[in-house]
Amino acid sequence: MGFRGFIVLVVLMGMRGSPTGAVSLKDESAHPNFVTREQKDLTVEEGRGDVMATGELNPSHFPARRAAKVVQHYLNTRYGSPYRLFGLEDVHSATAEDVADTGRRYHLQISAHEIISNRTQKCSADVFFPRGEPTQSPEVKASCEELLQNTTAQEEALYQRYKEGHSLLSAQYIPDSQGHIEPDMMPFWHLSIVASSFIMLHESTENTLYNMAQVAQITQLETEREELKFDSHMLLHDMVSQEILHWKLLFTWSPAEGVKVQQMQQIPKPNH
Ligand SMILES: *[C@@H]1O[C@H](CO)[C@@H](O)[C@H](O)[C@H]1NC(C)=O
Ligand SMILES: *[C@@H]1O[C@H](CO)[C@@H](O)[C@H](O)[C@H]1NC(C)=O
């Protein structure tokens, strides 16, 4: 079992407290996109000691990986689509500095992996975690080699199909309890990760490391507007606290406008 299998186990352990009990990601091969090439997330524990280190950071340790993960969420919010999804491939270098009393700034050189097209590109990024209460979202700046926001034929076809379809999309448990995703649902799994990236970006601090766990429910809503509109219930996994968090998310997508979040709200774990 390589790194990938190990990550799945880590996720599974986190799921045990989940009241739905629906997520067991045994069959990793069924959804190769779930675990990206993020083996270095495993160093959460190993890097804990230098969580607030400044200066040059070990690129494979938690503080650098955590800040780089925020860049991944940022890239997904800016450029993601049902056919474009970013993963963190590698952190090449990282530094951190305290900015007076206002927070901490990370400078990062990373490789971002576009999971669906299997392209990798280098990005340089700045992540600023503001200090103080109430907790504020990190501020991210990133520039990558090639970030054209092209509408692809696949996006257009998906959009047309669900815009003019005779029935609205409604799906539960992506992936299902066997870790399986129907091929038809794969674009909506990716779209859900992109939409959830808005939450993960917004909620990230220096004490979190979020990953998408499961779409509990996604329902397409009727709308007169050009975008497709979705109501959803997402499960996110924080690798640091090992908690599964439940969020209600209302969002739209169109090839021209990308993903836009209209409402996000953390909800209590449902009782079954
Ligand atoms: C993705 O690209 C890498 C390097 O460019 C290659 O080694 C790998 O086989 C590709 N993977 C897939 C699934 O095509
Ligand atoms: C995106 O659009 C640019 C400019 O129109 C074009 O040069 C490039 O090849 C396109 N990329 C993809 C992946 O379609």
TrEMBL record:
Signal peptide (from-to): 1-22
Entry keyword Hydrolase: no
All residue ranges annotated as the Cystatin LXN-type domain in the record: 53-153, 170-272
Any Gene Ontology CC annotation: extracellular space
GO molecular function: metalloendopeptidase inhibitor activity
InterPro entries: CYSTATIN_LXN, Cystatin_sf, Latexin
A Pfam family this chain is assigned to: LXN
Keywords: Protease inhibitor, Repeat, Signal
The family this protein is said to belong to: Belongs to the protease inhibitor I47 (latexin) family.
Entry protein name: Latexin
Organism (species): Oryzias latipes
Gene: lxn
